[in-house]
Design a protein that fits this description.
single chain; 209 residues; six-stranded mixed beta sheet; 4 helices; 6 strands; globular
């Protein structure tokens, strides 16, 4: 028998509004291609994920929300604006570079998120429209329900176990990036293996059926 077509997702979207949130995931997606106003563009992307401890699904787990950002600290970059609003402090030159701000620092940290719903082609998409510091006096959980996840496409920060724990969709997006290809080459070189050049090691012929 042929596999049936997948049913539309029955998961309820993350509620719109302003919520207390805890960041539990920072993932380097590498350079991704996207369609922007009919034009294909490439940019280095990073994925941030938050859980909403005060908004629970039917199974008792917190709702979550993800947002992709271009990996840029330009003064007009969305990521920089969000991080500055989150920390309540503008970045200075000393925050940049190897000894400056590390994006891992946001893991487990609380903030307020402005979650919005966007309708497209009959589907509801959840996006983060803004972020800020938590309001004074509110109780912030000491730990996230979801495990903290950090993955970066650099040989000194790469964790194959973390990569294996990601969804198939995120894995495939990462493996298509040139940063992933370069990383695999560097790791093969470091291990003394010769793969004949820099190649993406995720191919359709590896799928067993």
């Amino acid at each position: 028998m042929y596999l049936p077509a997948p049913n539309e997702s029955s998961f309820a979207p993350t509620p719109a509004g302003t919520h207390l949130a805890l960041c539990y995931r920072v993932i380097d997606l590498g350079t991704q291609e996207s369609n922007y106003n009919g034009e294909m563009k490439k940019a280095h992307k990073v994925l941030l994920s938050w859980e909403l401890p005060d908004e629970l699904m039917e199974d008792g787990r917190p709702f979550t929300v993800n947002q992709r950002f271009t990996w840029s600290m330009h003064e007009k970059a969305t990521l920089r604006k969000y991080l500055e609003a989150w920390r309540g402090l503008a970045f200075t030159e000393r925050d940049f570079g190897p000894s400056g701000f590390d994006i891992r620092n946001v893991l487990g940290k609380a903030c307020t998120l402005n979650v919005v719903h966007n309708e497209k082609a009959g589907s509801t998409y959840t996006n983060v429209a803004g972020v800020g510091k938590p309001m004074k006096g509110i109780t912030i959980p000491t730990a996230t329900i979801n495990p903290l996840v950090y993955l970066w496409l650099h040989k000194d920060r790469w964790d194959a176990t973390v990569f294996a724990s990601l969804s198939a969709g995120i894995q495939q997006a990462i493996t298509k990036s040139p940063e992933y290809s370069d990383l695999m080459y560097d790791l093969h070189q470091a291990s003394g293996q010769d793969d004949g050049g820099r190649q993406n090691d995720f191919h359709d012929d590896q799928i067993p059926f």
